[in-house]
Design a protein that fits this description.
Layout lengths: L2 E5 L4 E8 L3 E9 L1 H4 L7 H20 L11 E7 L3 H18 L3 E5 H7 L17 E6 L4 E8 L2 E7 L5 H11 L6 H9 L24 H14 L5 H30 L3 E5 L6 H13 L3 E3 L3 H4 L4 H12 L9 H4 L12
Parallel strand pairs: 1-4, 4-5, 6-9, 9-10
Antiparallel strand pairs: 1-2, 2-3, 6-7, 7-8
Helix pairs in contact: 2-3, 4-11, 5-6, 5-7, 5-8, 6-8, 8-9
C-alpha cells in the first residue's frame, strides 16, 4: 500500500509517498525560511499564502517518483493539527479534493504523533534500527517541547511538557537577541561547538528531575539581561561563548529529564523527535547520559526530525492498514449561508 502524505502545519509545505514498512519513496519539502527570515519568526498570513503557492507543485513533484502518479496511490494522509489554522486549511483542502476526485480513502494525522513515529521511517537503501515499543520520546521543536511514553501507535501518554515556551522558540529568540537571524537553532548549534560555556553564567531552567516539566521563559529573560548589560557580542569568540552557555542550559535540561523519564518508567529506550532533535549538542549529551544508565537512544536522520510529510504518510499508513477512514465532512460549511459554495470545492 502506498500513501501520499501532505504536511502544512507551519512554514514547510511538504508532500511525500511512503509504502509498506515505512519505506520513503518520495519526500519533497518547500521551505519558507526566506519568507519569514526578515521578521525573525513565522508570520501566519505569509505562511498561508506561501502554502497556497507551493502545495500543488510540491505534490506534483512527489508523485513523479512513482509510475502512474496519483493512480499508483492507495490512500491520502493529511495533517489535521496542531498548527497554524490558515496553513492547515491549505493542506487539508488539497488532501480532501484529491481524495474526493479519485475516490481514495483519507485519514487525518496528528502532527505530534507523526513526529513520535518518524523514527520508523526508512530512507534510502540502508535499513536503520528502530525501537521496540514501549519507548520514551522527547519531542522538541519550535512549537512543542514534551516527553511521552509511546506504548503503541495509537497509545501515547504525555508525561511532561513545557509550561511556557518551546525549546525551539527559545533558540530562535536567543538568536534574534544575539543578532544571528532566523532560524536560530542551527546557528547557535554551530557556534556553540567553538565556544566555552564557562565564560558566561546562565541558569539551568527547572533543572530538577523529580518533575518532568520544562520552562524556558526565564532562560530567555536571562539571555536578554545579558545582552542588555554587555551588548550583543561583536567578537566571534565572545559570541560563541554565549551560544555555548545558552545551548548547554537548554540541552542539559532536555537530556536530564528525558533520561529521568526512562528511569521512572523503567523503559530502556529513548527516542529524540522534532526539529530540535537535529541539534548536535542535544544528540551527544543525551546519548552520553543515557548510555551511562543503560538506556539506548534512537535518533532519526535530520530529514525525519524536521517537519516533513513522510512522517504524516507513515502515520496515515498505519491508520489505513487498521481499516480506519475519515469522512470528507463539509457539514461545517453547509451550515453557514455565507459558505455554502464551499461544498463544491471538496
Amino acid at each position: 500500500m502506498r500513501v501520499l502524505g501532505i504536511e502544512s502545519s507551519c512554514d514547510e509545505t511538504a508532500a511525500a509517498i511512503v509504502e509498506d514498512g515505512g519505506r520513503v519513496i518520495a519526500d519533497v519539502v518547500a521551505s519558507q525560511v526566506a519568507v519569514h527570515a526578515p521578521y525573525g519568526g513565522v508570520v501566519p498570513e505569509l505562511a498561508s499564502r506561501a502554502h497556497l503557492a507551493n502545495v500543488a507543485p510540491v505534490i506534483a513533484k512527489a508523485l513523479e517518483a512513482v509510475p502512474g502518479g496519483l493512480d499508483a496511490i492507495d490512500g491520502i494522509a493529511v495533517t489535521r493539527g496542531p498548527g497554524l489554522l490558515g496553513a492547515l486549511l491549505v493542506g487539508m483542502s488539497a488532501g480532501k479534493a484529491m481524495a474526493w476526485s479519485r475516490g481514495l480513502p483519507l485519514v487525518y494525522v496528528d502532527h505530534l504523533v507523526a513526529h513520535l513515529l518518524a523514527v520508523y521511517l526508512q530512507r534510502g537503501e540502508t535499513t536503520i534500527e528502530t525501537p521496540e515499543m514501549p519507548f520514551v520520546a522527547l519531542l522538541a521543536s519550535g512549537g512543542h517541547t514534551a516527553i511521552y511514553e509511546v506504548r503503541a501507535h495509537d497509545d501515547v501518554e504525555l508525561i511532561g511538557q513545557t509550561r511556557d515556551d518551546a525549546a525551539g522558540e527559545a533558540f530562535d529568540k536567543a538568536a534574534k537577541l544575539l543578532g544571528l537571524g532566523y532560524p536560530g537553532g542551527p546557528m547557535i548549534d554551530r557556534l556553540a561547538k567553538l565556544g566555552d560555556r564557562s565564560k558566561v553564567e546562565l541558569p539551568l531552567p527547572m533543572p530538577s528531575t523529580k518533575r518532568l516539566d520544562f520552562s524556558f521563559s526565564g532562560l530567555k529573560t536571562a539571555i536578554a539581561r545579558h545582552v542588555e548589560k554587555h551588548g550583543a557580542p561583536k567578537d566571534e569568540r565572545d559570541l560563541a561563548d554565549v551560544c555555548a552557555a545558552f545551548q548547554h542550559a537548554v540541552v542539559e535540561v532536555l537530556a536530564r529529564k528525558s533520561v529521568a523519564a526512562c528511569k521512572q518508567r523503567g523503559i530502556p529506550r529513548l527516542v529524540l523527535a522534532g526539529g530540535v532533535a537535529a541539534n548536535a549538542g542535544l544528540r551527544a549529551r543525551t546519548t552520553e547520559l543515557a548510555t551511562s544508565v543503560g538506556v539506548k537512544v534512537f535518533v532519526p536522520p535530520i530529514a525525519s526530525c524536521t517537519d516533513n510529510a513522510a512522517m504524516i504518510a507513515y502515520a496515515g499508513w498505519l491508520r489505513l492498514a487498521r481499516g480506519e477512514r475519515d469522512a470528507l465532512d463539509m457539514t461545517a460549511y453547509s451550515k453557514s449561508p455565507d459558505l455554502r459554495r464551499g461544498k463544491i470545492l471538496v
